[in-house]
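Reply to dn_fold:

You asked what the input looked like. This is it:
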Amino acid sequence: MNEVSNEYVSGQPYSHAFDDRDVPHPVIVEVRQISRNQLLIAYDQQADLATATRIQNYWIRSNKGVGDIASLNMEDGLSMMNSLRPGMATIEPVRNSRRRFLITFKQPAMRGVTYIVLPCYVGLSGQPQFGGANWGAYSHNTFVGM
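and this is what came back:
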């Protein structure tokens, strides 16, 4: 493991304390807006509930900038200072699932705005320690606000 890894993930600067790319971890496979202020997200594997339901492990990019449900601009790098906060949203498992989660925002998403959901640090069920990004080339983590 590396002490610090500075790299680009999805074309954006990304830093984390460990090089966990080879560590098995859940990857986001679907994001669906189910109401003006709710998103349903799905992972490919069962996630650790403690890390998957920590709202600070999620970032949302917007082509309109920070505001409504977005915590960062398209150009901003991820940091703990611009992740989602408990005052912005909550996250909970859907029917005790470890793969599907519901994010409920205090504000509605803006209609017609493009958003990208970027989870990080979500470990596998029984293996909570993961220090990387939970999205990849086949993630469907973009949606347009309705």
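Residues 30-144 form a domain with the Immunoglobulin-like fold (CATH 2.60.40.1220).
Hope that clears it up.
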